Amino acid sequence: MNFWETKTLAEMTTEEWESLCDRCGKCCLNKLEDEDTGEIALTRVVCDLIDLDTCSCSRYAERCTLVPDCLDLKQHDFSAYHWMPDTCAYRLLLDGEALPEWHPLVSGRQDTVAEAGISVARFAIKESEVDDMEDHIIAWLPPKPRD
């Protein structure tokens, strides 16, 4: 059995935890919260630290210092992050779901994330290129089934 099928998130080593990230970049999308309703809107705007070719943080070890709003999910109660995408491995495992076929730990290939339409690389823009984030609110659509 695979470690993600036998361990809880809390039981995983740092290496195991980090390997769950599929590098989709969805958690790096900027979010806007309505102060009255608490509703969260996603934008297609990402942090300037993300490398859009790999959807990886270019300064990962320093990200929480360089970007005060960046969260180290392992250091917090993950179940509180209801805004995480439905496709997120951490959320899936927390909810008792299996990892999807396109996940690199299942497929054995990182490029299956982009092939499945999960990656933000095809539509994201960096914060430094945006004047008004509200102009870039999106509705996240599930990936189209592959033929």
TrEMBL record:
It holds the Pfam family CxxCxxCC. Transmembrane segments: none annotated. NCBIfam families: PRK05170.1-5, PRK05170.2-5. HAMAP family: UPF0260. Belongs to the UPF0260 family. This is UPF0260 protein A1355_10160. It comes from Methylomonas koyamae.
